[in-house]
Amino acid sequence: MILLRPAVLIAFILFLCFPQRYCAAQDKSKIQFVKPGPGDFQRSDAGDSSSAVILSDYGSVYFIGNEKGWFSHVFQRHTRIRIINKKAFDLATVSIRLNTNNDDAEKADHITATTYNNENGVVTESQLDKKDIFSDRKDKNHIEMRFTLPAVKEGSIIEYAYSVTSDYNYFPGWEFQSIEYPCLYSEFEVEIPQTLVYVFVKQGIHSFAVDKGSQGRGSYRVGQKNNTGLVTTSNDLYVNANTVKHRWVMKDIPAFRAEKYISTPRNYLDKIEFQQSSWYDGQEYHDVTNNWKKATEELLKREDFGRPLYENTEWLDEWLNKITANISDPLLQAKAIYYYLQEHLTCTSYYDKFIRTNLRDVLKKNSGTVGDLNLLLLAMLRQKGFTADPVLLSTREFGFNLAKYPIMERLNYVVGRLKLRDTVYYLDIAHPQLGFGQLASGCYNGHARIISDRDSGSVYFEADSLREKRTTMVFISNGEKGLEGSYQALFGPVESYRVRERVSEIGEKEYFKRIRTSYGEDADISHTHIDSLDKKEEPVTVRYEIDLKQSGASMIYLTPFFGDVLRENPFKAADRKYPVEMPYAADQLYLFNMEVPAGYVVEELPKSARVAFNGDQGSFEYLVAHQDNMIQLRCRLKLNRAYFSPDDYASLRDFYAFIVRKEAEQIVLKKQ
User: Fold this and answer.
1) Which of 262, 318, 378, 596 shows a CA-CA span of 20 to 30 A to 57?
2) Can you tell me the distance from the alpha carbon of 199 to that of 167, in angstroms, rounded to the nearest whole number?
């Protein structure tokens, strides 16, 4: 089933293009700071729960001509924030991320920042010193400029502004809403010459106070270089051109306040994103990645994505001969290649779908981005004769992408598709604990796109399709020192992966130490073990023995649920504006058998119950029986979906409230 995603509006800014061939730079007035008065420090717009309030946030994008015979865009930002308490001091550190690819390096300038403080009714100013602006290279393609406003304390108002000039054919979008802080006023405006065509996506649930377009007129200067033999000359073109202007304003926007079971706030924040669709050279339009067919063609030609898969990769034969030596079965060959690379390579970034060096360097360094790793895997599989192609997607924490329109900035991840014997396998070596043919649950985020010159198309990885089964068995009996028992939990593929990942991070000893701590003083565990920890395609089973510390008491109060128990309702809010997005559809079976201790009788036993959720969307079954000296409990929770709309929230909240209350009920034993 293909789920309906959060409502977004896709709109095209279509320009009537005039015969002017090029345009050139226009001047924009610099942003001016206005000193706040003493009364601005006394307002209480944010309420008691917010540690800061964004007083105003202004952004704009306009175009200028450059020296390369085309356009650059300029992004300006001007922000004013009142710091209420020290929890928001991190807002005083501002980072500006810049692309630095070859000759198209972005440039940040006009950086200005001031901190205002109210000192006994007198407003003081502390301005940022230019020497306190730092620049760090994050990788070969990105630089981060960073500064921290001075003299910030509780009650300060901070204000900063900067500009970024870029030659890239995209320009930044705008988030009107903050995840953590309310915003009183947010404005974004664009001015675009009519020779450029952009698509923009509007998203969110709050309405605009202003949403207005208009026509304008811009004056531009473009430099052109002419090569005539040994001499290079340059000349400038000065052209006036019509422009399309648009201004969006939102007021009094509440903080998003992310809740449990939401994939990412990025899917629901009030925001606008842009991508260039085409451009006009004075005679005809030229498309720019405005459909998936065009996007696929461009991606397959890119040196940092598709082209290395089609180039000569005979140099991989030496590696492949070693990896697949003495293996004749094609599936086992593919698995050998998969596990070799997975065990020898380390992923350095899960947010980069491209090859950032080259495939030889990835093997040499044993590391790379998710694009480096999985595209190397595909190159090896292809060289061995397999049919294998890349699949582009966005992970859950990055946000959903659009099935009908390719916005490259929304796609952060690439996995591989292997077709073998009429079976399709999706592969990802970036996560070292994944088994062959498995994807991490974060990849189950809806639409993904197969990038192929044979059968490119859409595929959907929905969380609803992940059916995670878990069976837990607990047996309690009389021992020499009192009540003792055994615990065994058999996990499905998603939770098995999470156990492996957790043990890889903290170690098996610490893993069980934390389980032991969760029992408090009521019980102790011993003889711990995890089955199939290294067999990545098999389910994990966690086992240990339990020693209860209630023997000899006149009354024994025992909650029959051990291990990972639902102790509180995950849905605490009275209502919810956004969907509930669980990682998978769950089927959890819990079996409990207990031998009544010698000398005790059952004083009180929970009652059996069955509850259905929204018809056939889920169910909860709690069956308990007492016969002779045995107590048996069978509890099963099923959710047939992972995605629930806001309309389902109230019933889902009540459903979980019932489960939490029921699982907290105790067995009461009385000493004779």
Assistant:
1) 262
2) 18
**Amino acid at residue number 486:** S
Highest mean pLDDT among 193-207, 229-243, 436-450: 436-450
Rg (CA), the chain: 30
Q: Specify the 3-state DSSP secondary structure of 481.
A: coil
Give the three-class secondary structure for 399: coil
What are the backbone dihedrals phi and psi of residue 106, each rounded to the nearest 5 degrees, phi first? -75, 150
Task: State in Å, rounded, how far the first CA of the chain is from the last one.
Answer: 58
Instruction: Tell me how far CA of residue 251 lies from CA of 8, 177, 179, 191, 206, in angstroms.
Output: 20, 10, 15, 22, 9
- In 177-193, which positions are buried (b, 16+ CB within 10 angstroms) versus exposed (e)? bbebbbbbbbbbbbbbb
Q: Which amino acid is at 169?
A: N
Distance between CA atoms of 298 and 289, rounded to whole angstroms?
8
Residue 280 and residue 283: Cα distance in Å, rounded?
7
Tokens describing residue 636: 């099963």
Helix axes 493-506, 508-518, angle to 10 degrees: 110
The DSSP output letter for 500 is: H
CA distance 322 to 337: 10
For 47-95, write each residue's pLDDT tens digit.
557 899 999 999 999 998 887 777 889 999 999 999 999 999 999 999 9
Distances (CA, A) of 448 to 307, 545, 554, 609: 20, 44, 61, 41
CB atoms within 10 A of CB 102: 7
Burial zone of 269 (CB within 10 Å; 0-12 exposed, 13-18 middle, 19+ buried): buried
| Interatomic CA distance for residues 404 and 437, integer angstroms | 27
Rounded Cα distance between 417 and 375, Å, is 11
Q: With helix as H, strand as E and coil as C, how does 527-583 read?
A: EEEEECCCCCCCCCEEEEEEEECCCCCCEEEECCCCCCCCCCCCCCCCCCCCCEECC
Q: Is residue 408 over pLDDT 60?
A: yes
Question: Is residue 145 within 8 Å of residue 133, measured between CB atoms?
Answer: yes
Q: Report strand pairing: 52-65 vs 183-193.
A: parallel
Which residues, in sequence order, are CB contacts of 294 under 8 Å at separation 6+? 287, 406
Q: In the chain, what are the helix, strand and coil shares in percent, each to the nearest 5?
A: 20, 45, 40
Measure CA 186 to chain center: 24
The yes-or-no verdict on residue 24 having pLDDT over 60 is no
Question: Is the sign of the CA dihedral 55, 61, 64, 70 positive or negative?
Answer: positive
Backbone angles phi, psi at 563, to 5 degrees: 90, -140
* Amino acid identity, position 133: I
Q: pTM for the whole thing?
A: 0.86
Q: How far apart are CA 156 and CA 586, in angstroms?
A: 48
CA 408 to CA 525: how far, in whole Å? 50
**Mean pLDDT score of the chain, rounded to an integer?**
89
pLDDT at 26 over 70: no
Angle between helix axes 330-344 and 370-383 (nearest 10 degrees) is 150
Between 156 and 289, where is the model more confident? 156
Q: pLDDT tens-digit profile of 618-647? A: 999 999 999 999 999 999 999 999 999 999
Largest distance between two CA atoms of the chain: 109
Cα-based torsion angle of the residue sequence 301, 302, 307, 308 in order, rounded to the nearest 10 degrees:
180
**What is the CB-side half-sphere exposure of residue 437 using CA atoms within 13 A?**
13
d(CA 380, CA 99): 31
Can you give the three-state secondary structure of 34-95, one letter per residue?
A: CCCCHHHHCCCCCCCCCCEEEEEEEEEEEEEECCCCCEEEEEEEEEEEEECCHHHHHHHEEE
Q: Is the predicted pLDDT of residue 133 greater than 80, yes or no? A: yes
Report which residue type is found at 190: V
Spatial contact of 538 and 653, defined as CB atoms under 8 Å apart: no
